[in-house]
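[Automated response] Your request has been received and processed.

Submitted sequence:
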Amino acid sequence: MDISAPAPATKLGRKRDHTRDPEILDAALDVLAETGYDRMTIDMVAARAKAGKATVYRRWASKADLVIDAVACMKKGDIDFDALPDTGTLRGDLVAMMKPHTIVDAEKKLQIMAGLVSMLAKDPGLADAVNEAIVEPRASVNRIFLRRAVERGEIPADADIEKLALIAPSMASYRVLVQRKAVDREFLLSVLDDILLPAVGIRRTSTPR
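Generated structure:
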């Protein structure tokens, strides 16, 4: 045997095509929001994405793998932190964020969270990913607005910003997950005017909603 002879070249398999991944992940989120994790199937996702079931399985070995990737890739850039409103008041800033498309997007994310309830208890890592993609972006905006209010003397310097920033996201999550009700502008304004602002010592005025 000639050990000096070069080893035969390894035959490479066909390179995976990842160009459909964004569509499949978006489809997974849509199906998840509509059906919940337990009723969701790979067939449903493939049909929604107009992709072959084999294409999905080549990329994700299981439904759980697909869902974890979909949540991790969930759109986080829907808030432009470099262009947040600055109206001069805490209420004005928070109301300026209540745009129709942002309310719809936020409610869809909460519906996705609702669809994952059965899985969240089993996978702490997924719970962290859901918090990062759904709850934390809005809480981060609230922290910015609350710190501004402290800096201009509108609210007390010792206000518990961490807790206050989570009031609206937490109540919105409860409304969708437990009460199965929509999160609309009227609900968000009631949380702002009846709970958050009184909590920081700002009296409700006759400001139009």
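Summary generated for your ticket: Residues 92 and 164 are 16 Å apart (CA to CA). Confidence is low (pLDDT under 50) at residues 10-14.
If you did not submit this request, please reply to this message.
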